[in-house]
Amino acid sequence: MQKCQEYRTRLTGQLFFFFNVPITTMKRRIKQLIHFLTRQLWRVTEEDVSRRRYTSYNLLKVLYQTILRFIRDRVWIRAAALSYTTLFSIIPILALLFAIAKGFGFSNLMERLFRGGVIENGTMDMVMTFIDNYLEYAKSGVFIGVGIAMLLWAIINLADSIEGNMNAIWDVKKPRSYFRKLTDYMALFVLFPIIIVLYAGVSIFMTTIYQQLADYFIISSFVHICIKLAPYALSALIMTGLFIFIPNTKVKFRYAFIPGLITGIIFQAFLYIYIQIQMSVSSYNAIYGSFAIIPMFMLWADISWCIILFGAEMSYVSQNIEQYNFGQEVDNVSRRYHDFMCVIVMSLICKRFQTGERPYTANELSDAGQIPIRLTNQLLEELERIGLIYGFSSDAKSETEHFVPAIDINKLSVGRLLSSIESAGCEDFKIDHSKEFSSQWEAFIGYKEDIYQKNNGILLKDL
After folding, report:
1. Nearest to 80 by CA among 161, 140, 196
2. 70-84, pLDDT tens digit by residue?
3. Crossing angle for the helix pair 253-280 and 217-245, to the nearest 10 degrees
4. At a CB cut-off of 8 Å and minimum separation 6, what does 315 contact?
5. I want to staple 255 with a disulfide (CB 3.0 to 4.6 A). Which of 2, 319, 421, 442 is the partner?
6. Are 345 and 101 in contact, with CB atoms under 8 Å apart?
7. Would the pTM count as exceeding 0.70?
8. What would the pLDDT profile of 443-461 be if each residue is shown by its tens digit?
9. How far apart are CA 253 and CA 242, in angstroms?
10. CA distance 344 to 365
């Protein structure tokens, strides 16, 4: 009895400690964590910490910024739109894939793969009927070529929607030309059945080896694991290719591989869950009958596109993570430091032009001036807009711009730079600065003119 009382007293004390002291501590730690994630983390440079810790911080930055962009860009709305387009285009796409597979002589193999791994047999019969009817219509339309045109339009419409969403994530303003869309998308659809067949061939080969080596436990276990992991590897490969080739910009492989691997694994795992639910939920058949596939397919398509677009966001953030450093400071930079950094950037550009060396790029200016890359890009856009610098690409295929002065560097002084920055923009407002506000205007202009004249003799190239 005494032991029970001691235990009860001890438990009460522990509960009191848990529900009182730790809550205060937890609040403080949560505030510290939020401050670390929103401010301190983004101020850490490579010189501040070890290489391993800097890499781990970068991974944390990528995850945090990806989730933030996923919420801010409302990606689930994009996914819902793509799900609708997918539902509209799925039969034409399957029809084209099966037509290409039939041309190569392995349509039966593709059908077996779909029956065994993606669509259950009962639903597959209905889908195959739709595909046969669609191909028949495409070959014998009322007008010659109308069926083929509708087929191509449905496919290009889906591919164009995917590219549009990828370009929006990557902030690409210029999409592919119509000719490039037609050639690139058709090449992908021709390549896809070949990849499927190669995957099927490897799977059959591995399965045969597994059966022959059944008596060798270690080897057969390894082969069995490879067979189980093969769909995840294929899915990761497809996602990586999607993140590299669909956006109309240069995406580096190393920044697409890890997001592609993560997205492919999650996508394949969700596909497995979807197949199990599709085969086990019989209540849908009782409610919807033959239309049971539609709500299940729409749910699968919506979540799948959310997964894919999340991976695209991760790929973008991975390649551009340096742009988010000093994020709060960049969004709230003072006017004094803004002008000071403009002087630094223009001075570096003029000096490089004077010596005849290769012009700076944005990344090189960021490193040389110790200015965050996102702020460097903003300053360069502003200086180019007011006509002080000019950006050009050294190669027609390259997207990297080099920057040179747009006016004579022997006339480009600090005073002229500051005057150009001050006067850039619209001043067409109905403010009477000649009479009613003349004293304010004269005081302001007089103060500015003193600064400009004082710095007119200081050339940027001589700093």
Report:
1. 161
2. 998 888 899 988 888
3. 110
4. 243, 251, 255, 256, 259, 260
5. 319
6. no
7. yes
8. 877 777 777 777 777 888 8
9. 11
10. 9
